[in-house]
Amino acid sequence: KVTVPKPREQRIITIANQKGGVGKTTTTVNLAAALAHQGMTVLVVDLDPQGNASTALGVAHHSGVPSSYELLIGEVAVKDAIQTSQHSERLLCVPATIDLAGAEIELVSMVAREGRLKTAIHEAALAGYDIDYVLIDCPPSLGLLTVNALVAAKEVLIPIQCEYYALEGVGQLLRNIGLVQAHLNPELHVSTVLLTMYDGRTKLADQVAEEVRNHFGDVVLKSMIPRSVKVSEAPGYGMTVLDYDPGSRGAMSYMDAGRELAGRAQLKQDAS
Ligand code: ADP
Ligand code: MG
């Protein structure tokens, strides 16, 4: 079994891109599963009212289940909202229910509305779980839910689809990250960019990959996620691709990405 080094301190990573369908949710659950396979304990926080990450992890998320919604409005403690995924006891999830759909508006009038997730998942609240990674899956918008995710994290991972207009909207995302960093969370930075839905048979995919690498430099992971039917089928069975078809290219590419993500923190730690 391949294992990766544990981070010296818990890493909280927000997976954000206000474009829909770029692979945020797919990346959140499969990267989480990869890190869990590699020996890490990982908590996924589902912040998208659609609850697709919760579905893929096979956790209950019907209306009324303690979820990220109750967490944000301060009705439950994180410990009471955490479920264990069906496929690994090291893979935990705070699900999203449809109740979250109204939160964007409800939050507007709340005290400390941008910092509510951070407060809910602070270290003491998670004491006893020994969580190495927290991955937060964002909805496709830059509203208060995404702002809460950006305030709660130190790192942002941006998935970019190898398609036309790949970088469209990324400038706006980076400006918002800059605003959050300047006013709410000085430690926030884009630590990782992951190229998704890469199709090596097309020239376009290579052009996009090159453009993204020129734009972002070495925060772009070397591992790219191929476009693969297995990846898109897995959630229909309440599974990540690592459980659905561990030998598939999609599964292996997420394992590679997980290893790379973990190894990079190690490099940084050793250098400091
Ligand atoms: P987002 O969360 O950014 O909206 P998703 O992760 O839900 O995006 O992905 C959008 C769609 O693309 C989903 O149907 C998903 O199954 C599919 N998809 C994501 N990654 C891949 C991939 N590598 N290969 C094939 N289909 C993928
Ligand atoms: Mg999604």
Task: List the keywords.
272 residues, alpha/beta, Rossmann fold, 7-stranded mixed β-sheet, 11 helices, globular, binds adenosine-5'-diphosphate, binds magnesium ion
Kindly summarize this structure in a few lines.
The chain has helices at residues 24-37, 52-56, 68-72, 103-106, 116-120, 144-152, 170-183, 203-216, 229-233, 241-244, 249-271; strands at 11-15, 42-46, 83-84, 91-94, 133-137, 155-161, 189-196. By secondary structure, the chain is of the alpha/beta class.
CATH superfamily: P-loop containing nucleotide triphosphate hydrolases
What is the total domain count?
1
Q: Specify the biggest β-sheet.
A: 7 strands, mixed
Low-confidence stretches: none
Radius of gyration: 17 Å
CA-CA gap between termini:
29 Å
The CATH architecture category equals 3-Layer(aba) Sandwich
Helix/strand class? alpha/beta
Q: What is the number of helical segments per DSSP (H or I, 4+ residues)?
A: 11
Q: Beta fraction of the residues?
A: 5-15%
Q: How do the SSEs run, as a string of H and E?
A: EHEHHEEHHEHEHEHHHH
| CATH level-3 fold name | Rossmann fold
Write down the overall geometry: globular
In the CATH scheme, the class would be Alpha Beta
Q: List ligands, each type once.
A: adenosine-5'-diphosphate, magnesium ion
The residue-averaged pLDDT reads 94
Family: Belongs to the ParA family.
Protein name: Chromosome partitioning protein
Function: May play a role in septum formation.
Domain AAA: 11-189
